[in-house]
Design brief:
Blueprint (H helix, E strand, L loop, with lengths): L1 H13 L16 H22 L27 H12 L13
Length: about 100
């Protein structure tokens, strides 16, 4: 978790108006991509932490709620109804839940 936080803060620092050297530092031009990687990584980290602390009954997953991001796509691959279904499906996973755990 600390390493992930450090990476995200490095990206933020390289994107600041004072530096603005994120490309030279090897970062992508799209902050959305960096944030998605951060969310997906944190999902896995948090699931692992909970399991290692004996909280196997807690499940952490990330979902795709649909997207209309101008740098990626003007149209969402999911309708609002499909996006809502993914939220409901993840919320109603069986207990105990063997799979998915710490996934996107």
């Amino acid at each position: 978790e600390t390493e992930l936080d450090s990476l995200i803060l490095q990206y933020q620092d390289h994107c600041s108006a004072f530096k603005n050297d994120f490309r030279e530092a090897g970062w992508p031009a799209c902050a959305y991509s960096v944030s998605k990687v951060g969310v997906n990584a944190y999902t896995r980290i948090l699931q692992h932490q909970l399991e290692s602390e004996g909280m196997e009954s807690v499940v952490v997953n990330a979902i795709h709620p649909g997207s209309r991001h101008s740098k990626i796509s003007q149209e969402s691959p999911l309708t609002p109804a499909d996006a809502a279904k993914s939220v409901i499906c993840v919320a109603l996973l069986s207990d105990p839940c063997d799979h998915p755990r710490g996934k996107f």
